[in-house]
Structures are given as structure tokens and as C-alpha cells.
Amino acid sequence: AQKVTQAQTEISVVEKEDVTLDCVYETRDTTYYLFWYKQPPSGELVFLIRRNSFDEQNEISGRYSWNFQKSTSSFNFTITASQVVDSAVYFCALTGWEGGKLIFGQGTELSVKP
Amino acid sequence: EAQVTQNPRYLITVTGKKLTVTCSQNMNHEYMSWYRQDPGLGLRQIYYSMNVEVTDKGDVPEGYKVSRKEKRNFPLILESPSPNQTSLYFCASSLTRSTEAFFGQGTRLTVV
To answer: How confident is the model over A20-65, as pLDDT tens digits?
Structure first.
């Protein structure tokens, strides 16, 4: 069975702090894909990143960075110098070799206070 | 503009009254899905479709129907809604089975 666990239900930080959102996944597939989505207070789901299981390179995009470690089945997301606009619920998701279905974690609600 | 469009955005209905939530995408995507979002549970897939006339059950299909008669449209049908179907619903589409999904704006459904 496939599973995604986001153990942090809520995180609160002060603006300009760095924050890491944890994501641990379970799958028996050797080929799989991992995603992060952002859900701001307005409710829509915004795609942030996709990573396949054969690419363990870390990725940086502006203040966002992702650390993919197959050895620990983790795909963590770090926001550097957080801003109030980063306040949202963040979801980690997984799809296996067959694709077609995203398995979501429960989400982490990030609150960035000024 | 590339997008997934759901309607309505908000709906309050009574138990047992059939309803349809429409979903349309303009990106020529093969895959389309419906998810429901409930507090503490994240998003769970209801149904998905790999192409026209091809659909399959997701994790929570009970009480729902779908159809894919055209590539761009994927309506969600609740034949006899019940209060436990009160939820936030999202339609999504993706180019292939493994590429990122693009989501509609969501439909907040309340069944009383």
C-alpha cells in the first residue's frame, strides 16, 4: 500500500525564519513520483514541484528548496526567510508506477506571523 | 488561459436530491480525477479517468458516479446525496499518468 505522512499538523513561525515541512512516504514501486502542492487561504491547490524516484538531486527555486532522500523515504520542503504570503496548507503527494492517482498526506498548515 | 473549471463553487442541497458538479479542462489532458478534501484526511480520490469512456474507482467511490463522454469534461454525479458527502470537492487533470495535476477552484458542497 502507498502512504504519505506529514507528521506536522500545524507550524507557526515569525517572518524571516526558515521552516522545514516534513514528508515521509511509503511505496513498493521502484518508479514513483512525488509532489508538493500549496493551498492558500483562498482554497485553490497550486502545484509547486514534481520529482521522480530516479532523480535525487535537491532542487532550489528562489526561497523554496526540496530535499529528496530515498534512503529515508523522505521529501522535505524548506522555505528560507519565510514571508506572510507563505501562510497556507502544504500537501505532499505520491503517485506510483501505474499513475493516475495522487496519494496525499494530511497536510501541514503553516502560519507565518509578521 | 490553461485551466480546470468547476461549477458550481458553492452548493447547499437536501438529502436525496440528485446533483451534478461539472468539470471542464482546456489543456487536452488525458487524465482527469475527482478528489474530496476533509479536515484531517487530506485529499482522497473518488474516481479517475484515463481517457474518453475509460473510468475507474479511486479510494472513496461509494455514492458517486462519473462519466467521460468527451475528453474535456468529467462531471461528478451524486444520485442521492447524504450528509456524509458534505465536503470540498476538487476536479483535476494531468497530461499523463505521472505528470503534475492541475486542480479546479473547488466546489464546497453541503448536504442537509
So the answer is: 999 999 999 999 999 999 999 999 999 999 999 998 888 888 999 9
Query: Which residue from B minimizes the CA distance to A90?
Result: B42
State whether A45 and B90 contact (CB < 8 Å). yes
Angstrom distance (rounded) from CA A75 to CA A67:
6
- Grid look-up 513561525 returns A13
Indicate yes or no: CB of A102 within 8 angstroms of CB of B43: yes
* Residue A105 contacts residue A6 (beta carbons within 8 Å): yes
Are A43 and B106 within 8 A, CB to CB? yes
Spatial distance between the Cα atoms of A69 and A76, rounded to a whole number of angstroms: 9
User: Phi and psi of A19, rounded to 5°?
Assistant: -145, 140
**Sequence-ordered list of residues with C-beta below 8 angstroms from that of A71, at least 6 positions apart, any chain:** none
Phi and psi angles of residue B51, each rounded to the nearest 5 degrees, phi first? -175, 180
Separation between Cα atoms, residue B104 and residue B28, nearest integer Å: 15
Nearest partner of A33 among B43, B36, B94, judged by Cα: B94
* Nearest CB to B42 within list A95, A100, A104: A104
What digits encode the pLDDT tens for the residues B89-102? 999 999 988 899 99
Cell of A59: 532542487
Partner A contacted by B100 (CB < 8 A): yes
